[in-house]
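Late entry, written up from scratch paper. The run itself happened at the end of the previous shift, but nothing got recorded in the book at the time, so transcribing now.
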Amino acid sequence: MGEQDGDAERALKARLSTSLAKFRTVNRAYLARVGFQPNAEPAVALCVASDDPNVSVLEEAGRQFRALFATEAFLDMLFLSPEQEADLARVCSAFYERAV
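Output as recorded:
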């Protein structure tokens, strides 16, 4: 649906960028407004493009999120298929891209 951006989101993206750089398999990451079902309210999700999806990436991202936001807040997280990433990249810029 599009990129999620604001002061709080930029702070989260900065923290996540540092954390994600520790994982060599993470290629790109997006913070996006997504719709999981056609009639559902959009949600904010961390969308990760990775060569080898590893739950440790999501655990670390969860720690960074909880460090900034209230315990009642939540962040959906998912690994993207190549097709999903192609669709997302049309409407949202990656906030993290692994250095080559």
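The longest strand covers residues 26-34.
(Scratch paper discarded after transcription.)
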